[in-house]
Structures are given as C-alpha cells and as structure tokens.
Fold:
Amino acid sequence: DADVTQTPRNRITKTGKRIMLECSQTKGHDRMYWYRQDPGLGLRLIYYSFDVKDINKGEISDGYSVSRQAQAKFSLSLESAIPNQTALYFCATSASTGNTIYFGEGSWLTVV
Amino acid sequence: QKEVEQDPGPLSVPEGAIVSLNCTYSNSAFQYFMWYRQYSRKGPELLMYTYSSGNKEDGRFTAQVDKSSKYISLFIRDSQPSDSATYLCAMISPPQNLHKLVFGAGTILRVKS
Structure:
C-alpha cells in the first residue's frame, strides 16, 4: 500500500461545484503539502502544514482552502471550481528534520 | 524569468545511449540540488540528491553541479526503456525548508528499445 494515499485519483466536476481532495499518510511525518502540476509549469505549492495547528499559504493559494484534520490527514478544497483549476494535484509529506519530500500518486481533476 | 529553467523535451534516445538532462537556475543561494523521476500517472520520487558543486554517482546515474555556471546535470548511462519518464530538477537552501523547494518544469525522456 502507498505511504501517501490520495482520493479520488480521478474526478470530473462542473464549474462552480465544490470539490475536496483527500490525503492520508502512514509515514508518521509532521509536514504535509499540496501541489498542483501543469504542463510547462512544473510543480507549484498551494498550501503546506507543519503540524495540525500550523497551516500556511503557498505560491498559488487563491481559490483553494485546506484542512489538517489530524497529523496523518490533509485535505484540499476547491470552494467553487473553475476550468483553469484543471490539473494534476499532489499531496506530499516530509519529516520535520528531513530533507526529502515524498509524493502521493496524484489526483487528476478536470473542471468542465 | 523563471527561477529554474528546464527544457521540457521530449528527448528521445535509443536504448543504451548516454542521456544528459540539464537545468539552469538564477538564485545563487541554492545549495542543495535534487533530481526526481516521475513515471506516467505516478508521483515524483527522489532519484539523486547533491550538495554544492561536484559530481555524485549512483549506479548508472551521475548528478553534476556547477555552481559557478548555475547549471546542474543528470547523466544516465546505458539508458533502458524503463528509464522512460519525466525528470524534474529541484533545488533549495537550506535543506529543511522543503516548502521552499523550487522545481523545474520537467524533461520528458523516451528510451526506445
């Protein structure tokens, strides 16, 4: 089983709908991240969390919100989805003293 | 100008070829350099991690950093079809500030058998 699990893996939603992407991890890491990946733009950080009570905006947080429900769970919400939020979304984790980020397998989101 | 530039490819080579993947960067503060490999429909996974300038070798893979030129490379010897993937460079300083990790856009590599 994957150490960093994302659900759903694929989702098609309509413009204006609310959608939540969920992430859970079994690595015991304190830090969790949400990235989006677009062709030609690479990985861009949306939000990150150092622990349950410490959540921070990343490079491209507008239009997104997050919730850290527990050390192992970090969800990303699109309150009102728009087509330019169509992308591949990754959850990731790292240890507080670590130098490596571990990624989940990604969630493909299409907004029509 | 992007902080990290990486040719998106695709780069197509025959099996057994030596592959050179490259990134340039503009921030001289970067000291830690990484290469991630991403297979289709999978998340990126760390392949190589280097500090400062010089070479680091791991099997068929060699990571090279030239800080004076702000240029990093990943060489793959005896390339295999299983090496077909997207390769992303990433860099940071200091290493624990992983939320500040800056990624290149990735180079698509195709190794033909």
Summary: The mean pLDDT of chain A is 95.
